[in-house]
Amino acid sequence: MNAKTSVDHSLQHIKNDNKYKKNQKPVTPNLSEKILSIIASSYSVNKHIDFYNWLQTNVAEVLPHNMLLACWGNFDRNSQKFNFNYDVASNLANINTQALFDSPEKTEALMRQLYKTWSANNNRWLTVNNIDKVDENDEIKSKLPDIFNEFKSLLVYGLSDLRASNDCLYVFFSTDSTFMVQDSLMGLLMPHIDNVLRKIQHIEPVDISEAERVSAIKSYNLSMRELEIIDWVKLGKTDSEIAMILYISQNTVKSHLKHVFEKLNVTRRAQAVAKLSYS
Length: 279
Fold this sequence. Notes:
Blueprint: H1 3-15, H2 17-23, H3 29-42, H4 48-62, E1 67-73, E2 85-90, H5 97-102, H6 104-120, E3 126-128, E4 153-161, E5 166-174, H7 183-199, H8 210-220, H9 224-234, H10 239-246, H11 250-264, H12 269-277
Antiparallel strand pairs: 1-2, 1-5, 3-4, 4-5
């Protein structure tokens, strides 16, 4: 099977309504209970770390995946610069929101292609399976950033916000070869994932000037890791959120912060942020 056939097969599976309905199974009582549990637990999600844990536990029971990449903004084809916003919830150590900000061109190119594919599918969700077996010149595979090489399948679900005049793509990535998902499940699940993500603050890229970094390192002998952690503290992130973002333990975060406090001769986070802001 060549690259073109592989991707088209995923699209045809959804476009062909009669064939697709024949393949559908009713939502079983067990699945219904899990969906209700997911919905009920969604109301306790208030922070990004809660969102990550909710996805990797409750949601993953019915929709197994390794990463959810949310991308929203103006996908207008006539726009030369898209200026997308991103949020990532990943259980892979080398992929996080900051990693996407470090290679914005590749990430944007992928999102543009996935949006184009979703639009061509009449704005219906779709899967692309067996990516590792697809030809390197395939329109989607050729745009995957290098850090996404571990993924073998993806699922794209799009939502249009008419009031805000923008669209949002939710892309689930998996290291498994295929996504086996019922249409009814996605219709029940995605409105709640969308609602949860809209009520929590998404992670912004750290934008600290080189001059500020050099000044802090020279003045207080801060290491690059200590400076990185204090940058996230400035953005109001908790120890657990910083640990998730940087893929280190909470104890490691606390240890680094303890060293920062000692070097700055302070005892609280607010004091450390204030001292560095006026240094």
